[in-house]
Each structure stands twice: as C-alpha cells, then as structure tokens.
Prior knowledge:
Distance between the termini: 11 Å
Number of strands: 8
Strand content: 5-15%
CATH superfamily: P-loop containing nucleotide triphosphate hydrolases
Radius of gyration: 18 Å
CATH class: Alpha Beta
Strand order of the largest sheet: 3-4-2-5-1-6-7-8
Number of domains: 1
Shape: globular
Order of helices and strands: EHEHHEEHHEHEHEHHHEHHH
Helix content: 40-55%
CATH topology: Rossmann fold
Structural class: alpha/beta
Amino acid sequence: MESEPRAVAVNVLKGGFGKSTISINLARELAERNGRALLVDLDDNGHATFNLGYRGRFEGDNHVEEILIDGRDPRKAIVSIGGGLDLLPSHEDLEGVETDLQSAMASSQRLDRNVVNPLLDNVYEHIVVDTPANRGKLNDNALYATQNLIVPLRPESGWESGITQTNKRLIQEARQYFDLDLLALVPTDLSERLDQDTRDRNLLEAINKRDELAGFVPNFARLTQADWDDIDNRTFDDNLPGIRHRGSIDKAHRAQQPLRDFDPDCDQLRCFDELAAIVEQGGVVR
C-alpha cells in the first residue's frame, strides 16, 4: 500500500472509549512522520480541545458554525499545538451546529467542502477528525469527509454492542452512499492479566479470533494461537498487546500535551506510530 495524503475519523458509538486520546496522539505521530497534520475536534465534549490547552476556544464565537454553515476560512480558527500538529478546536454549542446542519444544503458535505478538500494535501498531509459518540449530521460530515475510519475498543461491558452499533448504524449505512474504509480496530486502556479470564483477554480473543475482525487488528494487538498458548503457559515474552494503560498518558492530558511531547520515552508511542503507518498505507499491513 502506498502512502498518500489521507483523512481519517476516529469513531465509535459509545463514549469513554478513548477516541480523544487516540485522535490526539495519532495526529501528533502523523505530524512527526510527515511534517504537518491537522486534528479537527468535532466531539461536543471537547476533550481533545481541553487536553491540548484550548478550553478558552471552546467558548466565545462559534467558529465551527462559521466554518461549516457560513463557509468561513477554517485557517482563521486553527491553532498551533507544536511539532507540526495543528488543531481546529471544538465549541460548546455544537448542538446548535447540528441543528443548523439539518436544514442546510448538502448538509453532510460541509466538512469536506469547507475544511478537508481545501486543506488536505495543499496544507496538511493528513487530517484526523475526533467525532461525537452519537449519530447526527456532524458524524455524517466526519465520515463523508474522511471516508476512512479507526474504531477504538475499551475492555469493558458494552464494547461489543459499541462495535455492533458502529458497524450497523454508521459503516453499513454510510456505505449505501459512499465508500468508507475501516482501517483498524484498536484495543486501548488495557491493564489486566491475559493468562486469566479477564475483560482484556475477552476483548483480545474476540477481535483476534473472528475472521471478520482479525484483519483490522494492528500488529501491536495481534495474537496468534501460538501466542495464546505461550500466554497460558506463561512463556510469552513479547510486548503486551494493545495500547496499555500508562500514567504518562493521563499525565500528558493534564499537562495539555500529546504523549510524544510529554514523555518521548513512553513505550506506548510505538502503538501510535503504527497507527500513523496504518493511516499512511490505508490499512493494516502484516
């Protein structure tokens, strides 16, 4: 697969699954690898915006409305994070934008027409969109504009319904109207043992052993039957799979920095680096 300018949405129809953490650090790694990347925060909770130090932009003039509804130049609202990463912040009244989009002409194409199309390749090699956890026009805009999707999965009750609903209500519906590629399923915030019946093990077994899911599992979360045998025999000596829970990730949020800039020695950067490669290549490569 060849690397080319590409936009991607980080999306799952369930809150608390690490969308913002993945979005921030994926965008930062894409900037590190390619020189410049843009993170667009369309999530109404504004976690990515807050975690990068721009809570103030969440209030005041509704720049998202001005861009998506009025056609304002998005570059006037974009802020620099550092290391080649820029941010188009979220806003507290995305609900108002959602309402306005309901009656707008070409209502699902505004992000593509006003942000992604003019900026992708011309200004940024890659654009990452952090999406809302609910269906709506903003989510439709994110999918149409990027046509590439990364789905985070957290080992807690409801992860299976989250991916089922995301597939049924987002991916399958979107594919009736345009091409939408699922790039990766990303297990995140793992911390439990794998040689026992834990939520971490259940999640990793489910995505690695199902033929319809296994091809979308990144190499950092891939486990073969031989790996499971080694885990059960307690002879597994490779990196633990998935994005692991690390204090540095939480501390980076509190410091309002991407992980790379807060702790460049964190072992989980390899996971975000592979996610960046998956975006560049348009899919998982074994």
